[in-house]
Design goal:
Blueprint (H helix, E strand, L loop, with lengths): L7 H6 L2 H21 L7 H5 L7 H11 L2 H13 L12 H37 L4 E6 L2 E7 H26 L1 E2 L13 H10 L3 E2 L10 H28 L6 E2 L19 H14 L2 H6 L10 H29 L2 E2 L1 H8 L8 H10 L4 H18 L3 H5 L3 H4 L4 H7 L9 H9 L3
Parallel strand pairs: 3-4
Antiparallel strand pairs: 1-2, 5-6
Length: 432
């Protein structure tokens, strides 16, 4: 997590003050529950709460000596709250606090990421609708295939991020659990009602079965979801990078009046945002393997996951938040060039109508194999001679004998490739 790729709201979730504040909320909620159960004296929380202040500097000073973060925290609270603070953490283990807090931080971060996706969806949808019928060439293997529309390209990304939103919401639900179950998850020194009370207070669910920790398969799912979103970002960024190449130039990242491109070549306008997003996506995906490896901890707990999560928790969520924000601004301000799309569409002299001729020949009685051979021969002639595909096929007697010229001409119609676009949009944007 570095400042360059961090935004204030989500960054604050991972700062020490917020973390310790959540720890205090957990401890006070647990103490409230214990009061109700008459495990600790009534009025304990009322006495502690006004005095229990977070002092990050002091907690870190104590931790430097005791080498234990939760003990340092509790010691710091006790220094301010006095002897009544002895009732905090009763029957609990450090992991009860750490894991519940970590899950809450992931939940808080996830909710920001959902908002980010919602904003991105608005921008993508706007471009999709605007360019619903803006013709461009579809490419398979990087090679011109058949016409599509730029709006359809955008609609594909719209649907992908809708799926990402659903995945993320499910993963947030999965990660939103609380464990206050003691040293090995048996509740031997703490009543399960305490856990239920804390969970309700923090708007979490209870962890049905924990060990000393909350099972890490939940976290693996969460970080895997973030990685999938990162991959979607990269797919979008890669598309823009390709379409901005000089030879293509169907779209272009917004370039400010005072913006500079190459340090050496003043003429250049580089797709730096898309390239940056590609790099950020790699970082986001890098959290997956460590998260998966954290699942297989020894027995009821070991500490091997701790250092991993201290890194991937803030780094991955903060980076993804920034990437989604950057992608949204990129899409909103994207320069789109329909004239260049049409120019590129015409580069191959209409050979992308080859399938239409192929199908019509089969309708006329030729075998698919015969039809394919005839059409391919003419398509290659058009390609090699840089000549109109239509002019070539209309002079092929094998074709004209099966397809009259007036009928053949009708096959070379762009609207044929857009006739179902409305259907795709209707089913994609239904109730959206």
């Amino acid at each position: 997590m570095i400042e360059r790729y961090s935004r204030k709201e989500i960054k604050a979730i991972w700062e020490d003050y917020n973390k310790y504040s959540i720890w205090l909320d957990i401890e006070l909620a647990a103490a409230e529950a214990m009061e109700k159960l008459e495990v600790i004296p009534k009025g304990t929380v009322k006495k502690i709460k006004p005095k229990a202040k977070i002092n990050v500097k002091r907690i870190l000073q104590i931790e430097d000596k005791v080498k234990h973060d939760v003990i340092a925290f509790l010691t710091s609270i006790t220094e301010k709250a006095g002897k009544e603070a002895r009732h905090l953490h009763k029957g609990m283990t450090s992991s009860d606090v750490l894991d519940t807090c970590f899950n809450l931080q992931l939940k808080q971060s996830g909710e920001i990421l959902v908002k980010d996706i919602n904003e991105l969806l608005k921008s993508i949808k706007k471009q999709a609708v605007k360019h619903k019928f803006t013709l461009c060439i579809g490419r398979s293997h990087g090679i011109h295939a058949e016409p599509i529309t730029f709006g359809l390209k955008m609609l594909s990304f719209y649907q992908e991020f809708l799926r990402n939103k659903k995945r993320l919401e499910n993963s947030i639900k999965e990660i939103s659990t609380c464990a206050i179950s003691g040293a090995v998850g048996t509740f031997s020194n703490v009543d399960p009602k305490v856990e239920s009370y804390v969970a309700k207070k923090l708007k979490l669910n209870v962890e049905p079965v924990s060990t000393q920790i909350i099972p890490r398969d939940r976290h693996a799912q969460f970080f895997s979801t973030l990685a999938i979103i990162g991959s979607s970002i990269e797919r979008f960024a890669t598309e823009i990078r390709h379409l901005q190449r000089t030879e293509v130039l169907e779209v272009e990242e917004f370039f400010g009046k005072k913006q500079k491109g190459s340090s050496a070549m003043p003429h250049k306008k580089n797709p730096i945002l898309s390239e940056n997003l590609t790099g950020l996506a790699r970082l986001i995906r890098s959290a997956v393997i460590p998260a998966l490896e954290n699942v297989a901890l020894w027995h009821e707990r070991d500490i091997s996951h701790s250092a991993v999560e201290r890194n991937i928790g803030p780094d991955t969520t903060v980076t993804l938040d920034f990437a989604l924000y950057r992608l949204n601004n990129l899409i909103k301000n994207l320069n789109i060039y329909p004239k260049n799309m049409k120019k590129n569409l015409d580069l191959t002299n209409g050979i992308f109508f080859s399938q239409r001729v192929l199908l019509e020949l089969t309708n006329a009685g030729l075998t698919r194999e015969e039809s394919y051979k005839i059409v391919q021969k003419n398509a290659m002639l058009s390609w090699n001679s840089n000549t109109s595909f239509y002019e070539i096929v209309k002079n092929d007697k094998k074709i004209i004998n099966k397809i009259p010229v007036n009928k053949l001409k009708k096959l070379f119609n762009y609207s044929y490739h857009t006739k179902k676009i409305n259907i795709i949009f209707q089913r994609s944007l239904k109730n959206k």
